[in-house]
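User: Can you help me understand a structure? I only have the sequence.
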Amino acid sequence: MFIGIDLGTSSLKASAVLQNGEIVAACSESYELLTPQEGWCEQNPADWASAMFLSIKKLGEKVDLSKVQGISFSGQMHGLVCLDENNKVIRPAILWNDQRTALETDYLNESVGLTKLVQWTGNRAVTGFTAPKVLWMKNNEPENFAKIRKIMLPKDYLAFLLSGVFATDVSDASGTLFFDVKNRCWSKPMLELLSIQESMLPTVYESSQAIGSVALEVAQTTGLSITAKVVIGGGDQAVGAIGTGTVAEGNISVSLGTSGVVFAACDSFYNEEQGLLHNFCHANNKYHYMGVTLAAGASRSWIAETLSIDDFGAIDEKVKELGIDSLIYTPYLTGERSPIFAPQIKGGLFGLTLQTTPAHIMKAVMEGVAFSLRDCLQVMRDVGVKIDKARCIGGGSKSDVWMQILADVLQVPICRINTADGGALGAAILAMVGTGLYVSVEDACSKLIKDEKTFYPNADNVKRYNEKFAQYKDFQQYSLRSASV
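Assistant: Let's start by predicting it. Here is the structure, written out as tokens:
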């Protein structure tokens, strides 16, 4: 048996998985999102720890934890977790969707320069990445900055609590902007720029490597065995892609969680000089290309709450009856990341009439998220990334209507797989590889991940959506101009 732990923005999910991929027990624990100022998003790492240990306890009520051979992680990326000399958390973690670092991000992209950043790390600076957060802390909280002895990413903090080992993996480290993605090591020029020492940073492993075993005191309080391996795991998108079997070039995964992600597995490092997408290490010892829209499922939840929609199934039935109209939604509720990198941009609904119903608006929201993902996919196609088919995970993947819209907008077959919980399953797969059950991530995925239903592009819809996407781009440019005023 193996445990996969998925540390998300709103909750932690834990799954007990047999070696055949069957999830025999699962649970989740939510925690608070702190927003002390507009644009700020923080969480207390202690809340993650409580959620993890409570989830393990709940799994232990359903399965025999002494049979667990390995534990691994999928974690929300980019969060800044700082510990002092006594391994105590210095301040709440600053999260991936925090927007406070606009000045630091501009400094990195403009004063340091995009050319140097891409050369040193493979990526441009965005407000969500870890490096601008480190600079912000240095500039705004110098007393806290001086206390730093360890810098961690969110899931690495949980691995540290379980094993006592200070470690990270290549996929999660790729999102810090102080990691040399091409050469899979910390970037010395960036560390010097940030005034941090490499000794403050964890040892870097491949995502499927075991970093140690469950610590004795943890075993005594949880029922886990001290022989259970702790496998470091990876960033949520890379591990989610493992959970969908997106490990070979030509395959992409689409995630419809709080954020939306289009993710392409790559055999080699693609050199895209403008840094329009995220160029990261994959969790299978290779690389991946990734584009992110910040408000995907968040857009759907927001409009549902605003319009008092409490039954997604019922609204989907109404959406399914609608044609493709001229109503356009731009999903920039919290700014936008790739490929426009505009933290100040605002979202919009264009084309409202007296005949517009909640179903029309919901469909426009689904289309708008799909258009934002297509924006990213086009960059991948432009640099030569091969794209044959896609697999989709996240809460949005449960909607047949949204899946068909994605297939039509992205112009690629979209598959729903035999689990909607790609993060926890992907983490369990990494645990299986890390304990030697499978010889490679690819070997495990080929045996465990199966397609359940495929949505194919409709030729008539593709033509109409090509026209509507051009209109979406016009409104995007209008919104960018408005944000700069």
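Now, to help you interpret it: The longest helix spans residues 459-484. The chain has a mean pLDDT of 95. Let me know which part you'd like to focus on.
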